[in-house]
């Protein structure tokens, strides 16, 4: 009888502990609200985001990769690769030989900027039989080794992106991709609160208003998921690409004008400056040391030779990274010659500055309730998404061990139930 009991218990345990990796995966929606600083919901009334804390997972904050800009950071999220591996090293596409530069929006359909060998999750998932879509998400509009995302909408240059009614329609569209087209994985992108953060500054009533609008949109999303019957089948991750900080201006500070320290015309061959807190410079031949030493004299600026970049930046291996990298101190903008810079807020600063940290929230059938995760690097979102979709990840730099604790199957309801079953059988045996 002991043997029978033992077998019975074992069988029960096998049934209860069966990993959720068997059977069909749930669907996954990833939403990025561009430039959502980690603490933006702390000084605004956000009832829907507050409810999400109880109904899902919240990370204290997440850290973007070392170039805290939209395209580099989003592409790390969707590939799970460091910037030096995926090669999207700036918002602007550039060629340091021809000196051609293309704006952020123009790059959205330019495959040669994105297609550098690192496969984004849309393509990897499609190659394993899933259907995927991208709604305005950076990188979604490109071809990867000749393959494109099943369903793609790309933001056009000049397209406004703050209309709340339009935001709701975008949610309706994405949900219809799940319900009518049976898509498995969709990414959805919103250009706010980044736009307001730049235009008005992060510590303004305008920023608080857009956070309230985002909160209402999250409320609408949750109602809509319920309405279309996806509550039990759709996991949702809400995240972002970087934070935002107030730009320090005269007369409070001496703004950085790089031409005061280095003769850009005579010594510099190519530069990407005047773009927030991060810049790159290619000195003219033989002028490398002179440029480096001159820049070192500029205050409120950190200057790196490419070969001396800190290891944890994960940048130096890529050919697109120029020989000299400059990062301004938090809140200082890089101006090459004149101060023509109108932004009141910006990013691009060191990812270890708290103002550059951003958000991670998640809810759905595979996520625990009321789970507060420690802070983590955004690169670890990738293996989590693969786990949720039950696909084999492409080579990546993330680690599932960082994020899997937020899933129900890891120490969550399933295992607790197994322990409960085991305990009651043990008690039953004891008292038999
Ligand atoms: Zn951004």
UniProtKB/TrEMBL annotation:
Question: InterPro entries per the record?
Answer: Alkaline_phosphatase_core_sf, Phosphodiest/P_Trfase
Query: Which keywords label this protein?
Result: Signal
| TM helices/strands, residue ranges | none
What CDD domains has UniProt attached to this entry? Enpp
Q: Where is the signal peptide?
A: 1-23
PANTHER family from the UniProt entry: ECTONUCLEOTIDE PYROPHOSPHATASE/PHOSPHODIESTERASE, ECTONUCLEOTIDE PYROPHOSPHATASE_PHOSPHODIESTERASE FAMILY MEMBER 7-LIKE PRECURSOR
According to UniProt, the name of this protein is Ectonucleotide pyrophosphatase/phosphodiesterase family member 7-like
Species of the source: Umbra pygmaea (Eastern mudminnow)
């Amino acid at each position: 009888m002991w043997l029978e009991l033992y077998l019975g218990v074992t069988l029960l345990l096998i049934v209860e502990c069966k990993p959720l990796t068997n059977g069909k995966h749930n669907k996954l929606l990833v939403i990025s609200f561009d430039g959502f600083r980690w603490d933006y919901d702390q000084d605004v009334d956000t009832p829907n985001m507050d409810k999400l804390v109880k109904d899902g997972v919240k990370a204290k904050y997440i850290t973007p990769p070392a170039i805290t800009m939209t395209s580099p950071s989003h592409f790390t999220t969707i590939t799970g690769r460091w910037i030096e591996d995926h090669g999207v090293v700036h918002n602007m596409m550039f060629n340091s030989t021809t000196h051609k530069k293309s704006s952020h929006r123009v790059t959205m359909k330019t495959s040669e900027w994105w297609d550098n060998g690192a496969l984004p999750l849309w393509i990897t998932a499609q190659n394993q039989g899933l259907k995927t879509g991208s709604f305005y998400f950076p990188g979604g509009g490109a071809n990867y080794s000749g393959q494109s995302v099943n369903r793609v909408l790309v933001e056009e240059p000049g397209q406004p992106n703050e209309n709340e009614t339009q935001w709701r329609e975008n949610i309706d569209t994405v949900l219809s991709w799940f319900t009518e087209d049976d898509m498995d994985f969709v990414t959805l992108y919103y250009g706010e609160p980044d736009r307001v953060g730049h235009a008005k500054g992060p510590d303004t009533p305008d920023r608080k208003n857009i956070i309230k609008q985002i909160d209402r949109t999250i409320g609408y999303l949750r109602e809509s998921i319920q309405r279309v019957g996806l509550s039990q089948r759709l996991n949702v991750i809400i995240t972002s690409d970087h934070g935002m900080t107030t730009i320090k201006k005269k007369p409070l500070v001496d703004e950085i004008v790089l031409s005061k320290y280095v003769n850009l015309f005579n010594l510099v061959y190519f530069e990407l400056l005047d773009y927030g807190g991060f810049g790159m410079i290619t000195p003219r031949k033989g002028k490398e040391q002179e440029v480096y030493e001159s820049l070192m004299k500029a205050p409120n600026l950190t200057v790196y030779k490419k070969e001396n970049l800190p290891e944890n930046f994960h940048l130096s291996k890529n050919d697109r990274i120029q020989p000299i990298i400059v990062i301004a101190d938090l809140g200082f903008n890089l101006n090459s010659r004149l101060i023509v810079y109108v932004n009141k807020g910006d990013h691009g600063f060191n990812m270890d500055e708290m103002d550059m940290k951003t958000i991670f929230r998640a809810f759905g059938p595979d996520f625990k309730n009321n789970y507060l995760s420690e802070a983590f690097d955004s690169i670890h979102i990738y293996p989590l998404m693969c786990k949720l979709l039950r696909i084999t990840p492409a080579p990546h730099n993330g680690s599932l061990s960082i994020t899997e604790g937020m899933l129900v199957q890891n120490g969550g309801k399933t295992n607790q139930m197994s322990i409960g079953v085991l305990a009651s059988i043990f008690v039953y045996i004891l008292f038999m």
